[in-house]
Design goal:
This protein is of the alpha+beta class. It is 32% helix and 27% strand. A hairpin with a 2-residue loop joins strand 2 (45-48) and strand 3 (51-59). The protein is globular, with a radius of gyration of 21 Å. It comes from Flavobacterium collinsii.
Length: 144
């Protein structure tokens, strides 16, 4: 009888205090189309609680115009949930030419208006899109 009571208690405790197995994910993808790309297998923006995880935006031109295009795409991703660059807390930047990216860093900095996030910059041999020279991904927090 003791074992039955103990097992019953553990079962009820587990049901009442176990964490939810699934997290709530909201997704946004370009042009108000499907919420995710099923060919490659990603969503452009994934929102969990008050955090936005933004997939990389890319350019084939490591020029001021190309860098501006990347950050304008990221701006659209942020705006999909009412956020701006002021909400960004982490930036990961991948480039095939770190020295050129350093040279044009002023283009990137304008989007942050002096409120810079934690950032990691990495030079890589190749990005997913073989002709891409820059890919930037973001993590942003929305107010609770």
């Amino acid at each position: 009888m003791k074992h039955f009571l103990l097992l019953s208690f553990l079962f009820i405790f587990n049901i009442n205090f176990a964490q939810e197995a699934k997290i709530k994910k909201e997704k946004w993808h370009w042009n108000n189309g499907p919420k995710q790309d099923t060919v490659i297998g990603y969503a452009q923006v994934l929102k969990v609680d008050n955090v936005l995880y933004i997939s990389g935006a890319v350019t084939t031109e490591l020029t001021p115009a190309g860098i501006t295009a990347v950050y304008n795409d990221l701006k659209a991703s942020l705006a999909s949930y009412g956020a701006t660059f002021a909400n960004v807390v982490k930036e990961n930047l991948y480039t095939t030419d770190i020295e050129t990216m350093k040279k044009y860093n002023n283009v990137r900095k304008k989007f942050y208006n002096g409120d810079f996030p934690a950032a990691t910059w990495v030079q890589v041999v190749q990005l997913y899109m073989p002709t891409a020279k820059l890919e930037v991904e973001l993590v942003a927090h929305l107010p609770k």
